[in-house]
Amino acid sequence: MTRRDRRLGAGALVALALAGLAVTAPARAAPPPAKPLTMADILAASAPSDWRTPDPANLMYLDLAAGRVVIELAPEMAPKTIGNIKTLVRANYFDGLAILRVQENYVVQWGDPAPDDAKRPLGAAASTIPAEFQRPRAGAPAFTRLPDKDGYAREVGFVQGFPAGRDRKDVWLAHCPGAVGVGRDTAPDSGAGTELYAVIGHAPRNLDHNVTIVGRVLQGMSLLTTLPRGTGPLGFYETPDQRTPIVRVRLAADLPQSERTPIEVLRTDTATFTALVEARRNRRDEWYVRPAGYIDLCNVPIPVRAPPKP
Asked: Of 8, 47, 108, 253, which has the highest C-beta tally within 10 A?
């Protein structure tokens, strides 16, 4: 063997030795799978810009003896009806009226319990308003679309934080739990906002396109869902003592800062909201055996919080 061959042989032995080390060295452990993010994780990581402060001019307070129900109005979806409601509120129309109806798994309704010929005067407010069940899609506010199909609409999603549906022509607010709508008689234009209701049960989406929705409850749903159920047909109370009196109804903008309820709502046009939707439609918490891979419009939570302290 020549000197050169011996050098090659040594190099080959070193290579083999190194190869052997590579083969026999313990393999590096794979990193553990990332823990799925929960809704709480996503909200904890949210930025201040992910949240919005509702316009005080569009926040309506329904004050009961047990506490306050905070309702956000949607004037771009029902401008005439909401304008009339604001006229009523500013005239203190609802003060001293009552919860008239609580129907199990359906709605809480409030207004004037007096007979038609003795109801409270409306003052400057109109007695009838043209129906605002939907509005043209062209020129409507931006729509944040959900990924899943819906049985009541071609597409569903959110308009300025309100659950909504749309087709090629129109966009409308949906009857999800917490939706606030306008009671009416048979005629479509018979709802002026003197009687309002909030959905407290399973979403009655069959009412979409048939009732004007003016907003939704942001806070205080438990004050409505825990009211005694009415004993009469459709959950109406049969005697005055069954009714819950309304202390007052006010717009936040008409109250001093000290009497307002500080509140922020998660924006629905952010990456944080998109992540929240995915976390809820594919639940991967330890408890879940099989993620659904689907979410219904009315099952999407819209988080609300008190503004963080500076």
From this structure: 108
pLDDT value at residue 35: 76
* Residues forming a β-bridge with 181: 197, 213
Instruction: Look at residue 219 and give its three-state secondary structure.
Output: strand
Do 206 and 106 sit in the same domain of this protein?
yes
Stretch (H or E) spanning 182: strand 179-182
Query: Which residue in this structure is represented by tokens 């201040």?
Result: 48
Per residue in 43-58, pLDDT tens? Answer: 999 999 999 999 999 9
CA neighbor of 301 nearest in space, from 93, 134, 161, 167:
161
Residues 86 and 215 in one domain: yes
The model scores a pTM over 0.85: yes
Residues 223 and 124 reside in one and the same domain: yes
Give a yes or no: residue 211 inside a domain: yes
Q: Which domain holds residue 203?
A: 54-263
Burial 116-140 (b: 16+ CB within 10 A, else e): eeeebebeebbeebebbbbbeeeeb
Supply the mean pLDDT for the chain: 91
Domain check: are 276 and 257 in the same one?
Answer: no
Residue type, 61: Y
Q: Which residues are 63's β-sheet partners?
A: 68, 248
Cα angle for residues 20, 25, 30 (degrees, 5° grid): 135
Per-residue pLDDT reduced to its tens digit, 128-166: 999 999 999 999 999 999 999 999 999 999 999 999 999
In this prediction, residues 205-224 reach a mean pLDDT of 98
C-alpha distance from residue 304 to each of 59, 225, 236, 269 (Å)? 14, 18, 31, 15
Predicted local confidence at residue 36, as pLDDT: 80
15, part of any domain: no
Q: How many other β-carbons are positioned within 10 Å of the β-carbon of residue 201?
A: 13
Indicate whether 285 and 199 sit together in one domain: no
Q: How far apart, in Å, are the Cα atoms of 111 and each of 74, 126, 134, 299? A: 20, 15, 24, 29
- Distances in Å between the Cα of 170 and the Cα atoms of 161, 183, 273 are 18, 22, 24
